[in-house]
Amino acid sequence: MLKIYNTLARAPQEFTPIEPGKVRLYVCGMTVYDYCHLGHGRVMVVFDMVVRWLRASGLTVTYVRNITDIDDKIIKRAAENGETVRALTDRFIGFMREDAAALGVQPPDHEPRATEYVPQMLDIIGALEKNGYAYVAENHDVCYSVRKFPGYGKLSGKSLEDLRAGERVDVMAGKQDPLDFVLWKHAKAEESAEVKWESAWGTGRPGWHIECSAMSSQLLGPHFDIHGGGQDLQFPHHENEIAQSEGAMGCNEGNTFVNYWMHNGFVRVDDEKMSKSLGNFFTIRDILKKYDPEVVRFFILRAHYRSPLNYSDAHLDDARAGLARFYTALKGFDVTSAVDWSESHAQRFKAAMDDDFATPEAVAVLFDIANELNRTKDPKLAAQLRGLGEVLGLLQRDPVTFLQAGPASADGLSTEDIDAKVGARNTAKKAKNFAEADRIRDELKAAGIVLEDGPAGTTWRRG
């Protein structure tokens, strides 16, 4: 049985879908006004892995990952650029999808944009007002009355007295409580018409939290299986989603929004949280200028999704070396990626993945297969390695292509340069000029290029 660490319960729990054989999953996606950073990449890769495993386990998954395309930062950036909000968000949605594809992330089944679901947001706000949870503040914003919701704090595990207004909760005059959050923002005169909608509370636009409640319930229903996102969203965003959704449905009637809440850990740099303010901020595009996308994906998956992920060049170099071990073991085998789940390695892999998606242990199984494959040259093991790798979105390329891929070496050697030097070395060996052959080998070695002589000739890979 699959067990998932449920943030709501603060414990691992056996996963039982609401509808047998089917899983409905919602993940909070990106706010699209800039390039995706490694933290975004981790969310995308982690929940892509989750979806892949659920489907490999025979479950039918409906996966929704939203796009926030209306937000204070988006409006500010568009104004700074002198462009429309739509032009800005369309451009960065395109960049986001390019980054996701590079990392081997399969598109979600639904990718709703917040601006397409404003009517559904207004319906929820209307239900909240009817049920006594929403009120109009002095500045004409519509706010949620946190203290009226009896379950507030159940996700973060803190009492109302312990909680403070979160990073994205504006503290303003007219709120009944500092923790109250905005459902509907009254329009500002200077804002463009494209960020204004008519409502029963006047012209305005939605608050951030209400967007996900509307999109998830519209596409997955008011009660669904799994809700995921980064650890930073646990409070206040996900706490507020619960309050909104259950308040609109009628929480006193025992209605539940989501059964299992999953949160992936932070990305850290030198043991500090990655952030622009600390100057340790890395976009996916910056990282891919130096590292192969599959290396970045493997780096993310080698850590357990709930653990901190510590970024460094050394860790990415180590991830590349690990992938190179797999591809070196696979070199020379032409096998399919079908998995024999009755085989012992596959059984261990499955046990790891069923234990809250324990990818570090699953990866350890892959290393065991690679080591045994190097000794036995058994094609069945090669098929298992490729097949289990596919479950994680790894090891599907031609081994030689991967081993020779990557940026030019420290000495600026391209693939063509290396091939030419290998050819020159072969010529020197045929002429019995072994001193020259050794010189070329040493030159390539110093540039990080490893030569491998075999019965079929000399091949090379980047070290």
Estimate the strand proportion. Answer: 5-15%
Spell out the helices and strands N to C. EEEHEHHHEEEEHEHEEEHHEHHHHHHHEE
Distance between the termini: 41 Å
Radius of gyration over all CA atoms, rounded: 26 Å
The side-by-side strand order for the widest beta sheet comes to 4-3-9-10
Secondary structure tally, helices: 15
- The whole-number mean of residue pLDDT values reads 92
Helicity, as a percent range:
40-55%
Fourth CATH level, the homologous superfamily of the largest domain:
HUPs
Major beta sheet summary: 4 strands, parallel
The CATH architecture classification of the largest domain is 3-Layer(aba) Sandwich
Classify the fold: give the CATH topology of the largest domain.
Answer: Rossmann fold
Describe this structure as you would to a colleague.
- It is a single chain.
- With 463 residues, this protein is of the alpha/beta class.
- It folds into 3 domains: 20-267, 3-Layer(aba) Sandwich (Rossmann fold), CATH 3.40.50.620; 290-403, Four Helix Bundle (Hemerythrin (Met), subunit A) (Up-down Bundle), CATH 1.20.120; 408-462, no CATH class.
- The protein has helices at residues 38-56, 72-81, 85-102, 118-130, 208-220, 234-249, 284-288, 293-301, 313-330, 344-354, 359-376, 379-391, 399-404, 415-430, 434-446, and strands spanning 3-6, 11-14, 22-27, 60-65, 134-136, 142-144, 181-186, 204-206, 224-230, 258-264, 267-269, 272-273, 309-311, 449-454, 457-462.
- It has a 4-stranded parallel β-sheet with strand order 4-3-9-10, sandwiched between helices. A 4-stranded antiparallel β-sheet has the order 5-6-7-8.
- A hairpin with a 5-residue loop joins strand 5 (134-136) and strand 6.
- Helix 4 crosses helix 5 (208-220) and helix 14 runs antiparallel to helix 15 (434-446).
- The longest helix is centred in the N-terminal third of the chain and has 19 residues, at 38-56.
- The two termini are 41 Å apart.
